[in-house]
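Hello, quick one for you while I still have it in my head. Could you read through the record and tell me how the tokens relate to the sequence? No rush at all, and the record is pasted right below.
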Amino acid sequence: MTSSTLASEGGAGIEENVEGVGGVESDDDLWVQSTPRRSTTHRTDALRSVNIALDVLECFATDTQLGVSDVARRLDIAKSTAHRMLTVLTARGFTEQVPSTGKYRLGIHVYELGQLAQDRNRLRHQALPSLRYLSETTGLAVNFAVPEGPDVVFLERFTTPDLEDTLGRTGRRLPAHVTSSGKVIAAFNPTLDRARRAAGFPPRVSRTVRSEADWDRELAFARRHGYATSESESFNDVSTVAVAIRNIGGIAVASLSLMGPTARIHSDVPRLAQLLTAESRRLGRMP
């Protein structure tokens, strides 16, 4: 066992199990599917069809294009069922068929609905000035995240050229235990903490939290210092610093984080945490 910290001023000190790294090779080689699969037991065939259709849509969270056989294999359903679901989804604009490949991808209607959900999130609107300020002040990528199940979803992100490709491949949902945002929200949100413990701590890259003991240390650090860090936990050679946005009752409802190459973040954690804290406190006071 070896351990290292993001910053000498008090990184959380995740233990890196060198013997256990094994198959963890790169961001592309391993994707943690954190959200539990839905129950396959339904009262009616209609409900089962709805659930399969939703599962088909979720397949596209990690792949740009998929064929009928790809979807059938992934969901362990008949090809005829996969084809029928994709036909219905395409007719409604949720998926579309790519003429050059014959495969399917997400349709424009998914974007429309997602944009509506994003635009109607009041806290995201309130956070936008803070995100712009932090982006301009630091030159780093800035994230605004909220908890959902055992994960965090990044509702808004101001990225940087050096991270555009990395972030563009991953979507907006990540398991809470692989992000500083997830750690700091869970430290002040028992619901997220319980959900993450129940889902477990599967590895993503070399330094991902892998045990409940690691998770306990991370949350204790966040409660003690008011911020959380990650180093090569969601992406290799990328580090983040996050603070929670808490409501009047002290429960974390969202987070602000700064993200960049570890070499840039490493020596600047205290200053970055102070900048994030000032903005999070302003947002926490808003109605």
About this structure: Residues 122-138 form the longest helix (17 residues). The chain has eleven helices and ten strands. The beta strands are 2-3, 15-16, 95-97, 104-106, 141-148, 151-158, 173-175, 228-231, 238-246, 252-261.
